[in-house]
Protein: YCII-related domain-containing protein
Organism: Stackebrandtia albiflava
Amino acid sequence: MICVRLEFDDDPRRLAARPAHRELLESLHDRGDLVTAGPWRDDDGALLVFRCDRARVAEILRDDPYYTSPGVTVAEVREWVPVVGGQV
């Protein structure tokens, strides 16, 4: 699995891109590429967990304008090896 950690700043322009971004997340989840995603409670960033390889995650990040919107920074992309509950 691949985890993507986003950081948000106060630039409100990211909010304009968010509805289309969330629609894309739903379709990625329906296809099985995305396990789960959501913002931190304080809305200073988000975590996305993908069930696909790094190349596919790179395509997803490239094709969704949200990840390059002002106010959004892709802070980290890391492979994760779950020990418990890895079948999610």
Strands lie at 2-8, 34-39, 45-50, 72-79. Helices lie at 13-31, 54-63. Residues 61 and 67 are 6 Å apart (CA to CA).
